[in-house]
């Protein structure tokens, strides 16, 4: 093996080493057709316009400071693609096998638990006064249950319906 062969192998190894990088999310631009990030990588290396492909139907803007994994095709550091972003501080922990959770950094979650229950939570945070869960629809909201519908309110239940409140077709108000 000659000098040129060793040099070529060294360059190939360097490109392979440069294909993946861990980093920290600095900033996000979510205004275009694809989300782009600024990511701090190696010491002093700042990657701009790192694209992040997201699955159809689910989009998020993660908070700055999260961990990132960036791939660089053929080891070319001029064009990175963000493979994953994790925010250690807000990621729900201790899930059971098979559970799925949608969450944000404000402790709002939608949990599909191992028992088949769906729980929507807007936790109260000491820095925020109270939380509400909102359901908004352009036309109507329909709740169908095979057994019963239970509303358990700690204080009161307010119904605001200009057209009236009905039970089994009979107006209650």
How would you describe what is shown here?
The structure is a single chain. The chain is mainly beta and 173 residues long. The chain has two domains: 3-86, OB fold (Dihydrolipoamide Acetyltransferase, E2P), CATH 2.40.50; 90-155, no CATH class. The chain has one helix at 3-17, and strands at 20-29, 35-40, 46-52, 67-72, 80-86, 100-103, 108-112, 118-122, 166-167, 170-171. The strands form three sheets. A five-stranded mixed beta barrel has the order 1-2-3-5-4. The protein has a three-stranded antiparallel beta sheet with strand order 6-7-8, with no helix packed on it. The chain has a two-stranded antiparallel sheet with strand order 9-10. The chain is elongated, with a radius of gyration of 25 Å. The termini are far apart.
Can you tell me the number of structural domains? 2
| Sheet having the most strands | 5 strands, mixed, barrel
State the CATH class of the largest domain. Mainly Beta
Number of strands: 10
Mean pLDDT: 89
Helix and strand element order: HEEEEEEEEEE
Structural category is mainly beta
Strand order of the largest sheet: 1-2-3-5-4
Give the CA-based shape.
elongated
Given the structure, what is the number of helices?
1
């Amino acid at each position: 093996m000659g000098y040129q062969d060793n040099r070529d192998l060294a360059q190939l190894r360097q490109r392979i080493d440069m294909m993946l990088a861990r980093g920290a999310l600095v900033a996000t631009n979510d205004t275009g057709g694809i989300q782009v990030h600024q990511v701090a990588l190696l010491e002093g290396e700042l990657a701009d316009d790192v694209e992040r492909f997201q699955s159809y139907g689910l989009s998020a803007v993660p908070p700055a400071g999260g961990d990132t994994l960036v791939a660089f095709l053929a080891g070319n550091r001029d064009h990175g693609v963000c493979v994953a972003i994790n925010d250690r501080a807000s990621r729900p922990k201790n899930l059971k096998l098979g559970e799925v959770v949608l969450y944000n950094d404000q402790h709002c979650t939608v949990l599909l638990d191992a028992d088949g229950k769906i729980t929507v939570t807007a936790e109260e945070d000491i820095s925020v006064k109270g939380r509400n869960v909102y359901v908004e629809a352009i036309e109507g909201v329909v709740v169908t249950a095979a057994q019963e519908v239970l509303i358990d309110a700690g204080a009161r239940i307010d119904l605001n319906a200009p057209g009236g409140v009905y039970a089994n077709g009979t107006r209650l108000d």
